[in-house]
Amino acid sequence: MSEQITFARPYARAAFELAQSAKRVPAWKHAVDTLATIVALPDVQTLILDPRVPPMVQAQIIIDAGADAFDAESANLVRLLAENRRLQAAPELALYYESLCDAAEGTIEAEAISAYPLDETQRESLVAALKRRLGKNVNLSTREDSALLAGVVVHAGDLVIDGSLKGRLGQMARAMSR
Fold this sequence. Notes:
CATH topology of the largest domain: Peroxidase, domain 1
Structural class: alpha+beta
Order of helices and strands: HHHHHHEHEEEH
Helix content: 55-70%
Shape: elongated
Oligomer: single chain
């Protein structure tokens, strides 16, 4: 995924800047989300990975499949991605585009991974702490991972806060091995 996000970032930035200047951010979001959904389909994956299928044919199939979502400009994005063999990066492009939308609105997406489910009070406390630290509104999603043993790991953009027991034990092990 890290390689795909590297490819996706410039396309997402360009699309976002174009969408902002045209005051069409929601329409573009719908287009890039539709593109990501179509590209993630197994049959489409097979199509875009087949070197025998010309890029413009790949692009046209995707444009036709999402016809209601693509205007002339977003269809050009699909063609450009196909021409540069970057259609695989569409899901990451959509995620990065969304993060640009959130940043423009002063919001950040965050994920809290905990050993056990967070109750509503813990969740609200975590959101408040992140809002203070980041200076932005926080949309928090949560999931459980029993491998953490206890505590929580938070991912918010490029920031990772590891307050898990597993992370602390790892830090201790590294410190003791020096």
